[in-house]
Amino acid sequence: MLLDIKQYGDPVLRVVCAPVEKVDDELKELAANMLETMYEANGIGLAAPQVGRNIRLVVIDIPEDEEEEGAESPMITVNGEQRPQKDVMPLVFINPSIEPYGKKSLFTEGCLSVQNIRSNVSRPDHVKATLPQLDGTVLEIDCGGLLARCLQHECDHLEGFLFTDRVSSAAKLTLAKKLKRLAQWR
Ligand code: NI
């Protein structure tokens, strides 16, 4: 079932989300609906607050052709082993903890909740992440590239942050008018 994607200006996007306490059928169905909604919108990540639920649940799917240079799936560390990133896609997790590390880079981000706006955001290149799965297992991931970027962007949503909060102050000035308009049309 397709869900309504909440848009910039909606207070539901600005809440610190609560941990998921119990994985039941309702939660599994929500995760499946979030994936469907994300695919339909051509996104690569979606966090629960973006569909109006203030809980720590995220879905991510980075298609191979989204990665720069060649179509090969990049290798990432999964529970201590090197594996192609595509092996863990789609990623569905609750209550993540992430530790970004490495040098910071600029990358152009967008968001399904901030329509028609893309902007450069500076973030560390790599992430170590602990990602509890719906089946009770835990994925420990160490990665770079688009996945590292996406994990940071999605985990920001769980804290009530949007990528537009993280752009340079000059870019914030440029975006201010557009964002104000977005919030009015919501
Ligand atoms: Ni987003």
Short description:
By secondary structure, this protein is of the alpha+beta class. The protein has helices at about 25-40, 145-160, 170-185; strands at about 45, 55-60, 75-80, 80-85, 90-95, 95-110, 115-130, 140-145. The radius of gyration is 16 Å and the shape is globular.
The beta-strand count equals: 8
Low-confidence stretches are: none
Bound molecules: nickel (II) ion
Strand order of the largest sheet: 4-3-8-7-6
Task: For the structure shown, list the relevant keywords.
single chain; 186 residues; alpha+beta; 5-stranded antiparallel beta sheet; 3-stranded antiparallel beta sheet; 3 helices; globular; binds nickel (II) ion
Explain the overall architecture.
- The model has no long low-confidence stretch (mean pLDDT about 95).
- The protein has helices at about 25-40, 145-160, 170-185; strands spanning about 45, 55-60, 75-80, 80-85, 90-95, 95-110, 115-130, 140-145.
- The protein is globular.
- Helices cover about 25% and strands about 30% of the residues.
- A hairpin with a 2-residue loop joins strand 3 and strand 4.
- The protein contains three helices and eight strands, in the order αββββββββαα.
- The strands form two sheets. It has a five-stranded antiparallel beta sheet with strand order 4-3-8-7-6. A three-stranded antiparallel beta sheet has the order 1-2-5, with helices on both faces.
- With about 190 residues, it is an alpha+beta fold.
